[in-house]
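Input chain follows. Return structure tokens only.
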Amino acid sequence: MKIAIVGVGNVGAALGARFSEAGHEVLFGVRATTDAYAARFGARVRPVSQAARDAEVVVLAVPGSVAVEAAGALGLREGQVLVDCTNPIRWSEGPVWAPPPEGSNASALAAAFPNVDVVKAFNQFGAETHADPAYGDRRADVFLASDSDEAKAKVSVLATSAGFEAVDAGKLRNAAVLENVAVLWIHLATVGGLGRAFVLARLSR
């Protein structure tokens, strides 16, 4: 697949590396193509407005507070898949879910850009797991929520190819639940004292 990663912090960089290693064509969208970005990502850096132009899947890995604003600069085309990795969180003695009026960041993106298919995914653990989803003989679960089964299937294939275990979490309305899963993970990793080297997982019997 042709993948655009918007946001080149720890999460975006780690996902881009995983997808590239899996054989996908990855471009990183940045505000300004500086020498530092070029040195880090080579020729795969583009201005934000260009990175998503030919992508099948656009991965939004920016701070949750600027998700809609950042997506607005992409020139998204009808039929593209927009993967929302963001979480609307504030801090008050620990992480606090702070959703927009639409109910979740993913729902806000879907309302703002009705021509694309929004999938909530890759928001439920830290960048260390984005970089390496292996936990012994198990793989980190990636829960996906979307109103488009086709888009969800495409992101599921992408996640599986990069070494994750894709789990269908239902309609886009469940993005709010997945953002709260992230709140739980952040709480446990920080004020809960567990550190970042863990994931929340399914156990089947």
